[in-house]
Amino acid sequence: MKRKKPGRTAGATAAGPELVSITGIAAGGAGVGRLQDGRAVFVHRTAPGDDAYVKVIESKPRFARGSLLKLEKAGQGRRQAPCPHYGRCGGCTLEHLEYMAQLRVKSFLVADALTRIGKLDVALPHVEPSPTEFRYRNRVSFTLMRLQHGRLVAGFHELERPGRIVDIGGACLLPEEPIAAAWEQLRANWGPDANLLPSGGKLRLTLRAAATGAISLVVEGGSKPGDVEKLLQAVPAITSVWHRPHAEDELVLLGGQEAIQESWQDAEVDLSGSVFLQVNRAAASKLEDYVLERAGNVKGKN
Asked: For residues 222 and 202, what is the distance between their CA atoms, to the nearest angstrom?
């Protein structure tokens, strides 16, 4: 059996770069253009109106995936991405566009899905902007991997290489400020090889912030719980630590408070474990107001 050469992506081509005109953006955030042979090519970090030199990294009979080598001409609405991690991180895919351009892309994607897949005749919908473009998520999940020789990496999956993790600190623009600060504290105080956290080669760490700034931490994966009490002392913003070794297991409170209190619109909600609330509290408030307005005077509204 012929062995594959190391370092080559399956289906990759050795052809040289092509100048591609980007005409749209696909649902995953990659720009879409056409290669000289007529196939569609999907290229992250490009946008409609771009003329870009593209290297094909994966070749299929009907389409290809490419990487951006050089931007020959920038389309309208491009910008330098504000996040310092954007070059490699796969957590965001449209940050190289001004926010209003992002909204136009999202409007097109909704209309395209309803028209092409749903077979409905719809116009481009209005997309309501979030009150805050950055620092809006009240819940963020990071992946922690313990590597060989005591190496540790914790962050988001790398763009186009989901098996790799990009080390991410508090400079990430997704989480609310309390989560970003708690994440920095956690990274600085989880001990050598993160030994205050549960054991295991790969962990999923979810931090959730209440309006008060209190943080809960859910750890998924691993087995032995670690020294949670010491962790809570080292990171005062984290008020509870929950653990689930396997996806089918129930969450177990390892230490701290059983619930954190959240103010949500006019209600007080006790959050524990993985209880769901919308991650963008400001946008959720606008959505709730819209639904109540559309519902009118119905029984049980208040």
From this structure: 7
152 three-state secondary structure: strand
pLDDT at 301 over 70: no
Task: State the pTM of this model.
Answer: 0.88
| pLDDT, tens digit (0-9, with 9 covering 90-100), for 149-172 | 889 999 999 998 999 999 999 999
Mention every residue, 6+ apart, whose C-beta is less than 8 A from residue 220: 203, 204, 205, 206, 243, 244, 245, 247
Is the pLDDT at 109 greater than 90, yes or no?
A: yes
**Residues sharing a CB contact under 8 Å with residue 275, sequence separation 6 or more, in sequence order:** 269
Non-local CB neighbours of 245 within 8 Å, separated by 6+ positions: 198, 220, 221, 222, 223
Over residues 9-22, the mean pLDDT reads 71
Task: Pull the structure tokens for residue 182.
Answer: 């708690």
